[in-house]
Amino acid sequence: MRKLLGIALMIMLVLSAAGAWAGEIEGKIQSVDTSDRTIVLDNGTTLSVAEGVSMDMLRPGTDVKVSYEERDGKNIATSVEAK
């Protein structure tokens, strides 16, 4: 019984980790929509900026490095750094 419970727990952990995918991308901001909390990079990538992440420094033409996670089919920026 204990062995079966351990296997089930491992399977649940693997499946829950597979749900969120994280990455980094660099580029130049093409457009910013503060009301919708989105930015578009020069390569066409659209990122939604997570609540709590400041958008004050985000302007078209700014080179940025963005860390993001994929959630429900959207790329959510968890941090944005001006380069």
Q: Can you describe this structure?
A:
- This protein has one helix at residues 2-18, and strands at 21-33, 38-41, 46-49, 63-71, 74-82.
- It is α+β, with helices and mostly antiparallel strands.
- The chain has one domain: Copper binding periplasmic protein CusF (OB fold (Dihydrolipoamide Acetyltransferase, E2P)).
- A five-stranded mixed β-barrel has the order 1-2-3-5-4.
- The longest helix has 17 residues, at 2-18.
- It is elongated, with a radius of gyration of 17 Å.
- The model has no long low-confidence stretch (mean pLDDT 86).
Structural class of the helix and strand makeup? Answer: alpha+beta
* Biggest pleated sheet: 5 strands, mixed, barrel
Q: CATH homologous superfamily?
A: Copper binding periplasmic protein CusF
Strand content: over 45%
> What general outline do the C-alpha atoms trace?
elongated
What assembly state would you assign to the polypeptide chains in this entry?
single chain
| Spatial separation of the terminal alpha carbons | 54 Å
As a percent range, the share of helical residues equals: 10-25%
Task: Please tally the β strands and state the result.
Answer: 5
Q: Which stretches of 5+ consecutive residues score pLDDT under 50? A: none
Give me the CATH fold name.
OB fold (Dihydrolipoamide Acetyltransferase, E2P)
Q: State the order of secondary-structure elements, H for helix, E for strand.
A: HEEEEE
Number of domain modules:
1
Task: Please state the CA-atom Rg, rounded to the nearest Å.
Answer: 17 Å
Strand order of the largest sheet: 1-2-3-5-4
Arithmetic mean pLDDT: 86
CATH architecture: Beta Barrel
